[in-house]
Specification:
Number of strands: 31
Largest sheet: 13 strands, antiparallel
Radius of gyration: 33 Å
Number of helices: 6
Distance between the termini: 70 Å
Strand content: over 45%
């Protein structure tokens, strides 16, 4: 018995000694901008013992304690680091980039993936690159940044929209890509609500990778992630501002008054007609471009606060942006007020609540543009021998051509105004069953109210001009017959429109990610989505506005007898989408990858006999540069997909 107790004591002492030689090292791994790095591999040097950092860059690894204990930190795209532990239990590491981005995390829809493991075409623009450009709209951040993505400007005026095309046109109908901001559906016009300084990254999915979004991904997918805070960090306050002046980069080389007179005389002489100019020594005359183009101010002020506690991350920002047009000044103006909040709270070790709130208010004034009758069309076609104003102080008429009017007078008589208020939100619960399986349940809402007003005063641009709304220079109103032999004055008019749009989205999905025997990696996403969008509009036109003035421009001010000329219209729509989706991916030995997606969409836009459609995709990739036979010094990475 005594011998047994001695042996038992030695065993207990040995086990206690072995346990006492183990320590647990924890810490946070960040990049050179203090942004947490998920997926960093932390390895006890000389062993196979290792761990990975989580989404917040945190890691925990139990190691054998000794004087030469060293931890090695691997993350593709960053320099490898080796750190001697030296009895420390907390080690925070800041890694430096080496210019490679093969392991960069890319958002691919209902999940993420390492760049090197993608089997489809995708691209990413980082927020830090966007901030350097001082942009007024988010879509401008993609211009020239990503191959296969074309941004076509629909309007050069402040706040004007753009058309985004991914790999060209794919249909005679709607060619806009699906745009998601923090998982919330946006349309291309709604991008005005975003402050480019709030963007963390923009991911563009071009082909099979976008298949997880089904029918809406036919034109590609743009996924925008806004900035977030980080755990256990002090409040970080940033204020950025700039103010500048914009000028036209180039003006057209047009005829002077003398050149115009000479050419016009030659034209008439060639036709056997009397020459209109007896004296062609008219000098330079009126430079209409100098009169229309002006220096326009632009300014932006952005305040952001971010940080976090032990279980909460937050990032909030407020922005004011204003831009006047180089044509029209205040008549072509855009301003935006924007506030944003990203909040993430760990309700428990397994449950996380993510919230996003955004409010924006856009105000825009605009002029007619793009084509015959626009301000610029009249500017470049106005006669250089004509003054802006005649000796009596009135605007010149630019006689002879019906479709050319004085552009300065045109801008003075233009009143087009719109305001758009937008509120966007997301509530998301993420439950982590274990390190391999998570469940996400989210609800998104998007509400927009748009009001617009256009006022058309009584105006006279000269005899025979198409744009005349008055009978003569005395601004007499034309008559309109409202009944047999019953006429009333038409007067000036105002058009008003009010629209509301509401999007609601409910989504639930599982994500699974596990590696078996260090060779077989399996990833899967399974979920469903319900989407509804509805819109309503009420519009009307009223005539005979008092005093021919913008100050009275309101439908209620209509003085037409009996209200006969109040033209009222309305419209409404509602669309729904019910979807289920599955994505599965298998990776063998970090070299061979195959991925498949199937999505079933039921849409109210489909025909009544074909309400549902299946949208499958399959793709694969071979990482040739990971093969042992690959030894090409000037090629760091090669993948066939």
């Amino acid at each position: 018995m005594k011998k047994f107790m001695t042996i038992l004591g030695l065993i207990i002492a040995f086990n206690f000694s072995s346990f006492s030689q183990q320590i647990t090292v924890t810490g946070i791994v960040t990049d050179d901008k203090d942004t947490p790095l998920p997926g960093v591999k932390v390895v006890e040097k000389g062993t196979n013992n290792g761990a990975l950092t989580d989404f917040d860059g945190k890691y925990s690894i139990t190691v054998q304690k000794n004087e030469e204990l060293t931890l090695t930190y691997f993350f593709i795209g960053f320099d490898k680091q080796e750190i001697i532990v030296a009895n420390r239990t907390t080690i925070d590491v800041q890694m430096s980039t080496d210019g490679q981005v093969l392991d960069e995390v890319v958002i691919v829809g209902y999940g993420s993936s390492r760049s090197k493991e993608l089997t489809g075409a995708s691209a990413k623009v980082k927020g830090e690159n966007i901030e350097k450009l001082n942009l007024s709209r988010m879509d401008q951040a993609l211009q020239g940044q990503i191959s296969g993505v074309n941004i076509n400007t629909n309007s050069g005026s402040p706040g004007g929209s753009s058309s985004i095309r991914i790999r060209g046109l794919s249909t005679f109908g709607d060619n806009d890509p699906l745009i998601l901001v923090d998982g919330v559906v946006y349309d291309s016009d709604g991008l005005n609500a975003l402050n480019p300084s709030d963007i963390e990254s923009i991911n563009v999915l071009k082909d099979a990778t976008a298949g997880i979004y089904g029918v809406r991904a036919a034109n590609g997918v743009i996924i925008v992630e806004t900035k977030k805070g980080r755990l256990n960090s002090k409040p970080r306050i940033e204020f950025n501002a700039y103010k500048g002046v914009q000028q036209t980069a180039k003006k057209l080389n047009l005829l002077t008054a003398e050149e115009y007179a000479v050419i016009k005389n030659e034209m008439f002489a060639f036709g056997g007609q009397d020459m209109p100019f007896a004296n062609t020594a008219l000098g330079d005359g009126t430079n209409w471009q100098d009169s229309v183009f002006q220096s326009a101010p632009v300014e932006s002020y952005n305040l952001s606060i971010s940080g976090g506690t032990g279980n909460t991350r937050y990032s909030l920002g407020a922005t004011y942006f204003s831009q006047q047009g180089i044509v029209g000044g205040a008549k072509s103006n855009f301003s935006r007020y924007n506030t944003r909040l990203n909040l993430s709270t760990d309700l428990s070790n397994k449950l996380t609540l993510n919230s996003v709130f955004l409010f924006s208010s856009d105000n825009r004034s605009s002029l007619s543009e793009n084509g015959i009758g626009s301000v610029l069309y009249n500017t470049i076609n106005a006669f250089p021998n004509e003054p802006i104003r005649t000796l009596d102080g009135n605007y010149s008429y630019l006689d002879e051509v019906a479709d050319i009017i004085n552009p300065i007078a045109q801008m003075e008589n233009s009143y087009n105004y719109s305001i758009s208020d937008k509120f966007v939100g997301k509530e998301e619960l993420v439950y982590k069953f274990n390190e391999h399986l998570t469940f996400t349940n989210r609800f998104n809402y998007n509400y927009a109210a748009v009001e617009s007003k256009s006022f058309s005063p009584l105006a006279w641009y000269g005899p025979g001009k198409y744009a005349n709304t008055a009978l003569n220079a005395e601004l007499e109103s034309p008559l309109v017959e409202i009944a047999d032999s019953v006429f009333i004055e038409r007067g000036s008019s105002v058009y008003e429109s009010r629209s509301t749009f509401t999007d609601l989205t409910f989504e639930s999905y599982f994500n699974y990610d596990r590696t078996f025997a260090e060779l077989h990696k399996v990833k899967a996403t399974l979920g469903m989505s319900v989407f509804q969008r509805k819109g309503e509009n009420l519009n009307g036109t009223a005539f005979n506005i008092p005093n021919n003035s913008w100050e009275y421009a309101d439908i209620s001010a209509n003085t037409a007898a009996g209200g006969y000329l109040n033209n009222v219209g309305s419209w409404e729509f509602k669309e729904r989408l019910l979807s289920a989706f599955l994505r599965a991916e298998y990776i063998y030995d970090s070299k061979y990858i195959i991925s498949g997606i199937i999505r079933r969409d039921g849409s109210s836009k489909f025909g009544p006999n074909n309400r549902y459609g299946f949208f499958p995709t399959i793709s694969g990739a071979w990482l040739i540069s990971e093969e042992s036979f690959f030894d090409v010094e000037f090629i760091d990475f090669m993948k066939l997909r």
